[in-house]
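Hey L., structure's done. Input below.
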Amino acid sequence: MSQILIVEDETIIRSALRRLLEKHDFNVQDAESVDEATRRFNLNDFNLIITDLRLPGAPGTDLIKLAGSVPVLIMTSYASLRSAVDAMKMGAVDYIAKPFDHDEMLNSVRNILAHRQTPASVQELSENQEDSEQKTHIIGSCQPMQDLFKRIHKVAKTDATVLVQGESGTGKELAARAIHEQSDRSKSPMICVNCAAIPETLIESELFGHEKGAFTGANNQRNGLIEAADGGSLFLDEIGELPLEAQARLLRFLQEGEIRRVGSVQSKKVNVRLIAATHRNLKSLAKSGDFREDLYYRLYVMELRIPPLRERGDDIIEIADQLLASTAKRMGESPLHFSHHAIKTMRRYQWPGNVRELENAIERAVILTDDNEISTELLGLDIEGPDLASLEQNYVSQTPPPSRKAVHDNTGSAGLSLDDYFQRFVLENQDCMSETELAKKLGVSRKCLWERRQKLGIPRKPKK
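Output:
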């Protein structure tokens, strides 16, 4: 079991992160400052240190030197290119902006630990994966999804490069994981990289690694994420955002099956299956010179298109039911169901944000519901005027739930969305109310308030 140390001065964040990691079988210790961490623990006993950038006393970046070879993941509420670059130059393996997304944090932690594992621990991980029955499950009964499943099954048995295309929020990473899990590489790691989330100045070092002294702040040799995926699969999400210089290096990797670390004169052979994804039109980007045409044709060996949610018919309700059950369970709510009107609305709504928008709408509704039924209004969909009239055609009128009426009474604006109201209320009242008082006024638990802050990116009031 991997040993992780959290160094964070905000109790609620430290506790939430500890629960999240322990829930996923990590062994976790925590401290409020660098001084407490070094006084209570031997830093070399840990596999990973997660620390806030700004702490009382010494900054979190001091742990990079104190921890030696132990990787350090930086968290910061002051997310900026400058602070990220400075931390990475000092030797941090990655950074995450607060409030962090749970899935993003878990993926980052798993990637770092997979990257740093010894051969013995990699073997142990493979055995655990073999014993596990948990596989990626993609819901879909419509014909486009059935065709997609057949293609995934066929391409998984090969080592062909795959380009997954689809709108944002359609589940491109799920398709990539399904390919990996059905392939002969399933016992080896799958490394996921969001090309749009890494600063342009660091992308080549992240993917290909660097030698000691390759650039200012490169104090140690570091393997890249492609090398970490050796024997397995590499998933490059949003590959259309990759800088042209990194595209040239990636093309050589695809052509020759080898990589060269930044600052190195020697190449290294790697055996990695590439799965790329984008919501952009790479062919158009190639014609305009924003994407290498030769790389485009290298990627376009096998294309998988994920249909948008609006084209998936009754899959929408099947997905919604599963999301509602899992969200209610996670938030400790009793079983919930959708109203007849909500089901009709979800079928007819266009879902520009696809499954991600559906997931967010359901989480919002679970937080705000006063009973065990989810109404159309609680979903808070972005529907106005003629669109709303069209969706509600032939509906029987329904009295709005009390929570929504309270929103109108308090804001005086029927056009204010639930998210807007939540954000406005918190920002206007957090200077004179505690977190407990805010949660009570909103009619939610402190846990729900914290989760909504994370989801909507609402900063907490600065400490005096």
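Residues 315-330 form the longest helix (16 residues). The chain has a mean pLDDT of 81.

-- N.
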